[in-house]
Amino acid sequence: SYELTQPPSVSVSPGQTARITCSGDELSTQYGYWYQQKPGQAPVLLIYKDSERASGIPERFSGSSSGTTVTLTISGVQAEDEAHYYCQSGATGGLYYVFGTGTEVTVL
Amino acid sequence: QVHLVESGGALVKPGGSLRLSCAASGFTLSDYYMSWVRQAPGKGLRWLSYLSGDGSVVHYADSVRGRFTIYRDNAKNSLFLQMNGLRAEDTAVYYCARDILGGFDSWGQGTLVTVSS
Lengths: 108, 117
Fold this sequence. Notes:
The structure holds 2 protein chains of 2 kinds. By secondary structure, chain A is mainly beta. In chain A, about 0% of the residues lie in helices and about 45% in strands. Chain A is globular. The termini of chain A are far apart. In chain B, a hairpin with a 4-residue loop joins strand 7 and strand 8 (about 80-85). Chain B contains no helices and 11 strands. Chain B is mainly beta. The interface of A and B includes residues 48, 86 and 94 of A.
């Protein structure tokens, strides 16, 4: 299996922009997905197919893709955005799924 | 409204077995692939297995292949995970998730499995 690598942590001031990267070879051919997880809660889908926003997700969350990297951008960060964020993708051939290592976003 | 509710988590001794259930509502289970994902305490998410809507396609992560079995009862709108030969490293919160063929758009609240003597 392959790995998806994320930075362990990102700190950002309220109102600023946070960017979280996710790198992995399969991302050049597979879509990336992004999830938000707050303590004690289940993950919530934010972004699917690299850049499509899931239903009910605020517009400040956006996704992009370039080569073997997908990026989650949170524009105008709010205190409620403090959480862990995970990227996820599938393997070529659809044999399995992989999650990224996770990034803790701290709002200063 | 899509709703997934897991149950069956418990404290079990190493080598023991457990069956997890996931009750689905708000959609027709047979129309979707479904997956199980787990999260060890303080750790990240790990995909375990998926099963197609008609039950004909199944895949497992290397870590559970041969020990865990995913299956479904579409008539009861339920998904299951039979776990045998449990190990301490299987201790985790187990989530069922609706699979949209690439990612997961709905998750249950999770059920805790603790493997300890």
